[in-house]
TrEMBL record:
Residues 1-20 form the signal peptide. Substrate binds at residue 166. GO terms for biological process: carbohydrate metabolic process. It holds the Pfam family Glyco_hydro_88. Keywords: Hydrolase, Signal. This is Glycosyl hydrolase. It comes from the Bacteria. GO terms for molecular function: hydrolase activity. It comes from Chitinophaga cymbidii. Transmembrane segments: none annotated.
Amino acid sequence: MFKNLFLSLLTVFSIQGVSAQQNFLSGFPKGFAPKEVGKDLAYHFIDSRHDLYAARWIHYAEVCTWNGALDYALKAKDQQLVKLLQRKFEPFFGREKALLPPMNHVDYNMFGSIALKLYQVTKDNRYRDMGLAYADAQWNVPENATPAEKAWSEKGYSWQTRLWIDDMYMITVVQREAYKVTGDIKYIDRAAKEMVLYLDELQRPNGLFYHAPDVPLYWARGDGWMAVGMADLLRDLPKDHKDRPRIMAGYLAMMKSLKDYQRPEGMWNQLIDEPDFWAETSGTAMFTYAFIRGIQQGWLDAAEYGPAARKAWMAMVPYIDERKNVTEVCIGTGKKNDKAHYANRPRNAGDFHGQAPYLWCSAALMDK
């Protein structure tokens, strides 16, 4: 009798435990609901001005924000927002065509990702053709390529390879979208092969990544590109793909280390392992996104990582000001082997580097 009672209670507690784990990523209070937060940020993006490189071409951070706004619109089933995003893009086929980035740099080519996402919504071949041109240009070596660029291509990698951790979002995002549009395995193979190279060359024994081989510092947003890049690539990579185990191992190692370095209130610092540095929002949002995806996909144990993901989201949202701008966003940052360089970086409110990953998190948390 007592044994049966014990087993019954154990079953109840187990069911409650599963339910509690599922609720880590839902049931947020007013003001923190992902649909509410995402709507504010996405409609704010519609009214924003273009972010340009040297007043010439669309900046990758704007593309990242565009991707997040579209993901949110689709999850929220907000057709008005989808149409507004299409309308915002339409001038690139005409009067704003000069703002399209050239297809000669890893940061520029990722522009193709938003065109490919819009094709999946509209089935308008103008988007498809534009996006695939950017995706293919990452592997089609131009005549004026340097010997080093040609050498990367001869090994099967993108000629735009440079072994900067940012690349593992910039390259993989456009190749993944090309794979989803065409079903052609070459695109996801490209992304996976490139990711394995970067993991083998750049990941440290603790799972994190230096900003550069000659800059042994763990800069939050730099590491964030790897975290998001791995999480998204693993979602699209076929289960039997030969590179999946290596990428999963790199992802899990990074997630474990990030959980250890999370601040008690939920944020991560500008330099991840420096406890006296300031809390930085773009890196925090990227790490939170990688946690959310891992929990949803079953790669991360919900009981272990769910509280960390929820705590991070609850800490992130108050950094959005009354103008719907994410604050405490580190501006674009080149490498420098100097901690003071990172400690003293200006912080922008409304910088697309921060708006984008907040939108990614909002959309991800709306997944059922």
